Amino acid sequence: MVEHLVFFKLKDGITTEEKQELMQALLAMKSEIPEIQYMACGEDFSGRSRGFGIGLVVRFENRAGLDVYQPHPVHQAFIAAHKSKWTDVMALDFEAV
After folding, report:
1. pLDDT > 90? residue 47
2. What mean pLDDT, rounded, does the chain reach?
3. Is the pLDDT of residue 48 over 90?
4. What angle do CA 81, 76, 50 make, to 5 degrees?
5. pTM above threshold 0.70
6. Core-most of 20, 23, 87, 97, by most CB within 10 Å?
7. How far is it, in rounded angstroms, from Cα 11 to Cα 17?
8. How many angstroms separate the CA atoms of 76 and 60, rounded?
9. Which residues contact 95 (CB under 8 A, 6 or more apart)?
């Protein structure tokens, strides 16, 4: 299994509605990209996130699935439509042991 973790640092002043819209758009990708086996996202509640307000977990069977996801038109359309909501993104990919 390959885990793809993404953390979004949101722009100041982003509304609750905009956060919900962002998370719904993230989750919508699961139904459009068959390589995604599992996807979850949510808003930080611990205050330990160093300013990253939304986290995303995406699971793939293998690295090939991640390689399909990254340039996939649906993923790229998500980025283009929502990148105005964040100031920074951090991603971490690993094979689960």
Report:
1. no
2. 96
3. no
4. 70
5. yes
6. 23
7. 14
8. 18
9. 1, 2, 3, 63
User: One-letter amino acid identity for 77?
Assistant: A
pLDDT of residue 24: 98
Q: What is the pLDDT of residue 16?
A: 95
% of residues, the chain, pLDDT over 70: 100
Domain that holds residue 74: 2-95
- Name the domain count of the chain: 1
For the chain, the distance separating the N- and C-terminal CA atoms, rounded to the nearest angstrom, is 8
* Nearest by Cα to 22 from 89, 70, 85: 85
Question: Residue 56 belongs to a domain with what CATH number?
Answer: 3.30.70.100
Structure tokens at 35: 């390589």
